[in-house]
Amino acid sequence: MRNVILAESAGFCFGVKRAVEKSLEIQETYGKKIYTLGPLIHNNDVVNYLKENNIFSIELDDIDSLNEGDIIVIRSHGVPEETIELLNKKNLIVIDATCPFVTNIQKKVRKYSDKGYNIVILGDKSHPEVIGINGWCNNSAITTLNGEFDIEVPKKVCVVSQTTEKESNWKKTISNLSFMTKELLAFNTICSATEVRQKSVLELSKNVDAMIVIGGKNSSNTTKLYQIAKEHCENTIHVENSNDLPKNYIENANFKNIGITAGASTPDWIIEEVMAIMKNGLK
Ligand code: SF4
Questions:
Q1: How the cofactor binds, per note (predicted)?
Q2: 129 is known as an active-site residue
Q3: pLDDT at 40
């Protein structure tokens, strides 16, 4: 008999849940088609579910196709300050579903760049959350992907982190900056939802024969869960939903204990489907 164990903390985080619920609520209130600036979350199944509920993603480049009074939702990653100004100028109804934890980073970055600190962001500079944060200090931040710097760092620095970063990268960043700066103000802004997920996948992956990480292929927090799991469990796979489960994996008799975790954009219904198939096989 197989044992399928769900990580203690998996799936929708507070910020994503809030953004999805807010969008559904707003759509219902206005009773018309509404838009999200970019896909609301990194999960194709949820994006399709939203479409069925008259909620569509639109890119900033296409914003001119909207009319005055159209509703646009800002997703949990947040956006640069200038984007909010632009949307307001177009007289759109802007619903801000930026996760409050991300808003907190944006405020810090604005406050300390105004006070003369040079902002450093640990994170992926092409990720919308980092682009958004950088937009609150006039796009002047230095970004580091892993705590290493190949340019000269100014002496007075305020450092923050993308919410989905690994603690080890944060420690490396602080350690390197402490040699390079004279005045260092550090806010560890890694979200505890991320940390809790990462800790529970670390524990679980040490004790199972196989690990399944569920989440969008372009979701950064899911990718990090996958990397952590893979370090401790060779048979780790990353799937978007139950359709991606390989047949030989489902039927592998050596897998007696299977661990499951899911990124912050994965809804419960997808987790449940994967668990059912791994428990009972394909019907
Ligand atoms: S991971 Fe944390 S910061 Fe990011 S949306 Fe979720 S709750 Fe907010």
A1: Binds 1 [4Fe-4S] cluster per subunit.
A2: yes
A3: 87
Q: Under CATH, which number does the domain 3-11+193-280 receive? A: 3.40.1010.20
Domain boundaries, given as residue ranges, for the chain = 3-11+193-280, 14-99, 101-190
pLDDT at 122 over 80: yes
Of 139, 75, 122, nearest to 102 (Cα)?
Answer: 75
- Marked catalytic residue, from 25, 129, 231, 273: 129
Pick the CATH number of 101-190 from 3.40.1010.20, 3.40.605.10, 1.20.120.450, 3.40.30.10: 3.40.1010.20
Expressed in angstroms and rounded, the spacing between residue 13 Cα and the centre of ligand 1 is 6
Is the minimum distance from the CB of 212 to ligand 1 under 6 angstroms? Answer: no
Regarding the beta carbon of 101 and ligand 1, being less than 6 Å apart is answered yes
d(CA 72, CA 156): 38
Task: Name the region of 82 (left: φ>0; alpha: ψ -120 to 50; beta: rest).
Answer: alpha
Vertex 126 angle, CA 136 and 35, to 5°: 75
106 three-class SS: helix
Summarised one tens digit per residue, pLDDT across range 245-254 is 999 999 999 9
